[in-house]
């Protein structure tokens, strides 16, 4: 009896231990699932500055939404980390008439997130007359035609290096399943490595891995983009582990973060260049000599050193970042020369007879405005504007800084009621030099009308031969240096910060694009 009792007691104790272990195991598993931070969790959390304001092809994907789009949607052609064009959803392409007709041969056995096949009809759908791309930058495209299931023909009104345009994530290929039977947008459907799961406005966007992806499947199970508008708050979120990665690290935080254990800062010169856009239609900037005086007055090397903590490259008036196609390495740029700047103003009739430090002409003071956006670039543009203001004050120009939202800036652009606008990027994607259209008179916001310039831009954009392109774009860069429709300040660096768990991330020069291929997490 005693022996049986001991046996039964031993069995009960063993069962209790097994059950307790099972409960603990279940508790740990549930905790890992709930927090997303367990040892095996592959949920990457990325801090971005703005929410996705649009998912459909009728509108441009503004702000940081393109970093999210690049996970869901794909383009016909892609760029590698050094901006070399490579196949995307199209495996090959050619033109047989010097750029007026382009044929794209599509990748087979690719499906959209809703299971529908990717084919020529979906390309026709994505580049219809309703698309933003056709309305804004692909106006020369007359028709898009499916030749067969996996071949598409683009017919243009003029020659055009179309493949470079089709690398931009803001006009990708979308699945017709984005729309319901009545033609209303339902949800984003792409072919990318991640699928849309949910969005909480101004808080987060959650994507899950596309297990049916045609290429190398992501090592991540999920990517959550957290909307954190303030740059300083994003940095804190990275330091505290609230997020694994942040986009657009402020320059003033880079050195400190580089020295912080567990944080890795990724930097690469991008295609974006900050510039002062002039209102060349109105005084005082309707005089080339006044615009040149600004170029001689502003020290772009000092802006890089003193404002941007040595991050980026001084442009000195160069319109193209060195990473872009046909950026002329021998271009003669501006260096600060205050005496030259003052002499140019004197020649333009702006003098200071009363010695009050502000020049006058025909009884009017040399006063102007410098507009800065309240947007995501404000952290760098506000101090840059102050440097410009100080430099122009030294040569007798009174500059008032106005900080406005995008709506306010657009209104002043429409009326022409501004002197200068501090900008970044703008018609800059990949390596192709589309940016020169910013100053083309056909652009309603150019505020610069020069027939010679327009002819050069038109000829360059229609050239297909690479040697001809290079010559024309070199001529355009020199023309911008001489004419100064805008003064280019700094070639920007793209800066991404990652926490200790992030492995395998490679930064690219393309901006805005977030390459998560090969990224995985090792959580402690």
Structural class comes to: alpha+beta
Helix content: 25-40%
Shape: globular
Describe the largest sheet.
11 strands, mixed
The total count of helices amounts to 14
**Segments where pLDDT lies below 50 for 5+ residues?**
1-38
Topology, pairings included?
Elements: H1 2-35, E1 43-48, H2 65-72, E2 77-79, E3 85-87, E4 90-94, E5 101-106, H3 120-126, H4 132-136, E6 141-148, E7 151-156, H5 162-165, E8 194-200, E9 204-209, E10 222-227, H6 231-240, E11 245-247, H7 251-258, E12 264-278, H8 288-297, H9 300-307, E13 313-314, H10 338-347, E14 360-361, E15 364-365, E16 367-373, H11 378-394, E17 398-404, H12 406-415, E18 420-423, H13 451-462, H14 466-483, E19 486-498, E20 502-503, E21 520-521
Helix pairs in contact: 8-10, 13-14
Notes on the protein architecture:
The chain is α+β, with helices and mostly antiparallel strands. It is built from 14 helices and 21 strands. The strands form five sheets. Strands 1, 8, 9, 10, 11, 12, 13, 16, 17, 18 and 19 form an eleven-stranded mixed sheet that branches. A four-stranded antiparallel sheet has the order 4-5-7-6, with helices on one face. The protein has a two-stranded antiparallel ribbon with strand order 2-3. Helix 11 (378-394) links the parallel strand 16 (367-373) and strand 17. The radius of gyration is 27 Å and the shape is globular. The protein starts with a helix and ends with a strand. The model is unreliable at 1-38 (pLDDT under 50).
